[in-house]
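dude i think i finally got it to work??
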Amino acid sequence: MVLTGAYAQRTIRGSVSGSGQEPLAGANVLLKGTTTGTVTDLDGTFSLEVSGNSSVLVISYTGYETREVVLTASNQYPGTLEESALGLEEVVVVGYGTQQKRDITGTVASIKREDISSLAVQSFDQAIQGQAAGVNVSIPNGVLNNPPVFRIRGINSINLSSFPLIVIDGVPTYSGDLSANSAANNILSNLNPSDIQSIEILKDASAAAIYGSRASAGVVLISTKRGKQGRTKVSYESWGSWAKVNRLPELLNAAQYLEVKNEAARNANLPQQFFPQVINGQTVDTRWYDYIYQTGF
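look at this
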């Protein structure tokens, strides 16, 4: 006689949230001791097919304590994760990898992706204004994609650029001499803020030990998002704005303008030289504000 055991399959569902009840998207849900698992959706929910002999779920998320949940006869498993003592803000990217903040002797300023990804700006460089202590970022004018005036340790050269070295995913980029604020040289304008995972700014002289003289004005380390194993997730963000000119000075109309010009001619002992223009019986009096300044979207 041969005995065979069959384990019934069932689908369990649940949700994963943080201690503040915020849903955690992308949390890993794994059957302990196996490679069977899934990740949570944007709303923190998950669905997983398990066999009858499955006993423990392992739920993990970066920056939170890993939690194990014992499976019962229920098919619903809500889970709350507590923040770990070593959170995301305690790990920073440096020129030679990642380190814990407490192990770094240099001066590093970190900017979280959440702080800049939702800002309505024309380019990434405008989003980092005021985000890091000791770092002065200002936009020189309104020309689109013009590089910002970036000062980490003040002005370090009399005739050369004080723009910091930009390192994207470990690759130093060439920005040329940005002292002329040429829009063509602005490498930061090509970055989508939603694609950035983290930003670290090396502000002290220790950065020169890694990057040499190029780091004399500081280093900006940018890490972009990487692909993760699991189901495909699509997110959509958009924003719109309206621009309208304000406090325009009042100008002379056509009759007033002709009066002033002819008065100037009389003061110069000249005959009247300016006359109104009539088209189809109507005196031309165009208010150019109505054609030049319009509501911009």
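The radius of gyration is 31 Å.
im so relieved honestly
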